[in-house]
Amino acid sequence: MAGHVTAKVKRSLKALAVVILVGGAALFAARPFVPFTPFGGGDDRLSGPPPLYMDLEGEAKVTAITLADLSDSEIEDRARRPVETIVQVRSGEKLTELLGRAGVASAEATQAIDALITLFDPRQLKAGQKVTVTHAPAPHGFGRGEFSKVSLATDPIRDVFARRTDKGGFKADQTTRPVSKQVAHYSGSIKSSLYESAMAAGVPVQVIINMIKALSYDVDFQRDIQQGDSFEVMFEGWYDTKGKLVRPGDILFAGLDLSGSEIQLYRYEDSLGATDYFNAKGESVKKALLKTPVDGAKITSGFGMRNHPILGYSKMHKGIDFGVPPGTPIQAAGDGSVEMAGPNGAYGNYVRLRHGNGFATAYAHMSRIAQGVHTGRRVMQGQIIGFVGSTGRSTGPHLHYEVLQGNNQVNPMSIKVPTGVKLAGKDLDRFQGHKRQTDLMMAQIPSATHMAVSALAKMGPKKN
Q: 2-176: which CATH number, 2.60.40.150, 1.10.357.10, 2.60.120.280, 3.10.450.350?
């Protein structure tokens, strides 16, 4: 009987190949066509036995010829497999809409989502996330049958899914991958940028981004880093049974050697339970003000006397001009309150923030001020307060940035801004002990490797 079925399938395949090759865009439909595009557009794709009633000429042609060359057992096996469509979430798209794109009827989509919601909030879907939609094989052989399952990864460790039950409804469940917490250590020489060199050394992207954030209070990545400088980083991560990193954790240490000048940051939890990065002296890395309030900035005009590009005579330049593309987000250099926000003569669109310790910062020539930034409003360090432009007296898009001490402008690049916390007494002693343990851990883990936390604990201090 199986041989008879296979022969029929092969005859259908050969006939289909002829139809496609001769008829071009001819459509094969052994049952009503359900419109979807498993191969076309974006990252949506199909795995398992592809349906042969697709209106995709090129893909169907290749599929028919490939399947016609399969053995009888391979054809029977493929005909019994479920059909999986991997669909990528579009910007602002709801799960019901995504399932509709994958050919799922709205009533069945609602049933599946009602089950899935017990384990996962569909509102947490993000653009670019991939969702697998599974259909049973068609009763007559190749193609898609009824919708049977929807699944997605909520994080690198957990998958959730809703599967059709024998009674016709849907039930949610989840699977987790076995992982172990390990500590990884990487170091290397900087050839171009820290980002590119750390990537080349194998450091995960998210770890690099977090490392740059921690170091950005002390390092100007556009000007301070030179070829031949070096980096070192140690971080926690969760690894699967094959030794593959599935989720990076906290950075335990981040360091740079900048032409002999060392910057070392240690993650430390103080006696009150607050966590921050501290230098070797026990000073918090977090400063009252960021060194630069825009990413990728180049100084086009420094602080001091200059020949004014518009007025044509020497005039005191009371800030720093950063040359960046129009529309670049501008960050609040520190926590504070909005003292002024709006048009301000030659400054154009302007924001001035008042911080603690007698400091204020000002931002001029914005294309626009961010929504919600107005006089009296509190802002946090790093919050977007506006966007680079060329309003007011300006020759082109840039950010004019000022730091005021009291009511007087001072050079933003030379002032000493206070740190957030400086450890002392028992807290400093406790930190120094933590620092020694971190240094020992780095010495025990060779660069570009990772080691289980339990193994590190067994090794203990090295004997001289």
A: 3.10.450.350
Query: How high is the pLDDT of residue 46?
Result: 42
What mean pLDDT do residues 429-436 have? 96
pLDDT at res. 95 = 95
What CATH class is the domain 178-286+419-464? alpha beta
CA atoms of 399 and 388, how far apart (whole Å): 6
Residues sharing a CB contact under 8 Å with residue 55, sequence separation 6 or more, in sequence order:
25, 27, 33, 35
Tell me the β-bridge partners of 175. 159
Distance CA(341)–CA(355), nearest Å, equals 15
CATH 2.70.70.10 boundaries in the chain: 298-410
CATH 3.10.450.350 residue ranges for the chain: 2-176, 178-286+419-464
Whether pLDDT at 407 is above 80 = yes
Tokens of 296: 């990728």
Q: Which residue reads 């290749």 in tokens? A: 62
For the chain, the average pLDDT equals: 80
Q: pLDDT at position 78, please? A: 64
Average pLDDT of span 7-33: 38
Handedness of CA 441, 447, 453, 457 (dihedral sign): negative
List of E strands, 370-456: 378-379, 384-388, 399-405, 408-410, 449-452
Q: pLDDT band at residue 70, thresholds of 50, 70 and 90?
A: low
Cα–Cα distances in angstroms (integers) from residue 73 to residues 1, 11, 52, 97, 446, in the given order: 13, 15, 19, 37, 50
- Tell me the pTM: 0.55
Domain boundaries 298-410, corresponding CATH code: 2.70.70.10
Distance CA 96, CA 76 (A): 33
Treating both helix axes as pointing N-terminal to C-terminal, what angle do 57-68 and 2-23 enclose, rounded to 10 degrees?
A: 140
Q: What is the pLDDT of residues 199-231, one digit of tens each?
A: 999 999 999 988 988 887 788 776 788 899 999
